[in-house]
Amino acid sequence: MAKTSDSQWFVYLLKCSDDSLYTGITTDVKRRCGQHEAGTASRYTRGRRPTCLVYLEAIANRSLALKRELAIKALARHEKMLLIRSGALDNAAGHPFHAQR
Q: To the nearest 10°, the Cα dihedral for 83, 85, 56, 30?
């Protein structure tokens, strides 16, 4: 069954084994990160495993998550690193996947 637009969405950044950054969105962070690790989530991360979740931001709905993902993808690498250092992952401490990073 597909998730509704009322579901909690997340924008996330992964740090790949080659030190590159990958940005994506999901409603289930644990499942999606597992897919990245299994090599079934994206062609980009498949060859750059292992990956590490370095940024997580809760978003109200899919539309806003897609817009935020595009905004983050448009940032320069140093700006993404500043975003990661901002501690958004720490702000997601209530999310069940946080403890497993």
A: 140
